[in-house]
Structures are given as C-alpha cells and as structure tokens.
Amino acid sequence: MLKVGLTGSIAVGKTYVCEVFRELGCHVLDADQTARDVVAPGTPGLSQIIKEFGEDILLPDGSLDRKKLGAIVFNDPDKRQLLNSIVHPLVIEEQNKWIAEREADNPDGIVIVDAALMIESGGYKRFDRLIVVWCEDDIQLERLMRRDGLDEAAARTRIAAQMPQAEKKRFADHLIDTSEGFDDTRRRVREVYVRLVAG
Fold first, then answer.
1. Which CATH number covers residue 174?
2. Residues 146-150: contacts with CB within 8 Å, 24+ apart?
3. The dihedral of CA 116, 90, 95, 120: what is its sign?
4. CA 30/CA 134 separation, integer angstroms
5. Do 151 and 198 sit in the same domain of this protein?
6. Range of 188's domain?
7. How many domains does the chain have?
8. Cα dist. 90→66, 73, 94 in Å?
9. What is the mean pLDDT of each run of 10 residues along the chain (199 residues)?
C-alpha cells in the first residue's frame, strides 16, 4: 500500500484536491476531522485536556469550546505545545489504525492523509510520498478573505502565522497548483494520481 501525505497552506484548495483523489479511488483521511474525533465528549483526549486546561474550556453541551481553547493556545507557545502533546499522539494513533484497516481491505491501494501541519510537525516523514497543494499568493489571500469573511489585514495575519508556501514546496515529491480553478486542478490531480499508481 502506498502511503501519501498531503498538505498545503490555508485556503489553497486542499479539500477539493482530496475530493478528486477520492473520486479516483484513493482512501483519503482528513487529519482535522480526526483531531476533532479524538477530543469528542467521553474520549480520553477530552478528559486530558480538561485536566490540563480546566472545565471552563467546555461548551454547555460538554463538548470542547474550540474558540476559547484556540484563544488560550494562540497567545501562549507553552500551552500550545502542551495541547499538541495531548492531541498529536492520539491523532497519529488513529491515523495508523485507519491506515492498517485500509491496507487489510486493499493492500494495493493508495491512502492519502491530509494534514495542515504535516511538515511543521515532522509527520510527513511517516509517508512514502508528500504532495503539497499550493496557489499564487494573491489568489490565496482572495480565497481566504472570501471563504472566512475576513478583511485583508486579518487574512494576511493568518497566512503569515503559517510556514511560507515556498518553504513547503521544497519538501514535496509532487506539487499541485490550484491557481487556475477547478478544471485545471482536476487535470493536475489526475496527473499526480497516474504518477502515484506508476510508483
């Protein structure tokens, strides 16, 4: 089974790229969704976060108040590291379980794990190949402002908080440029898929 990591900066089109890979028959896992699952109510992950951060990071229904927790860790690198030390091992454990299940069902298949911080965390080293999704900087800015309803300053701040796209591209085995819109992106995804299948 070929294990592929997929990453890219905010608002570059990773979700659409993953949809096309799914249509082509790849098994795709969204690490953000896994990160939500491992801290759902009743999980050991959420219990550990409550132990470290207190009950007031919960919403009235007992689920994690992501905005409140985000505000705490965004401004405090030590707390962010603490949160990551709780969540990352749980996410990797779930990913490994999911990959093993896919491999048992389809040993010759391709699994793709989509994770925003794969390069920064070093997680990309677990995969046979790394795909980096990117687009031109002005297009990224415009997409982020439109998608999240942000003004330009707020959008630029979010983009600046991440590793620059040019840096991410240096780690890639395959690059997918989404600048030209859906049809062109679909064609580029197919080209990468053909190369993955060929080994």
1. 3.40.50.300
2. 147/11, 148/11
3. positive
4. 17
5. yes
6. 1-26+109-199
7. 2
8. 17, 18, 6
9. 96 96 96 91 96 95 91 83 91 93 95 91 93 98 94 90 94 98 98 95
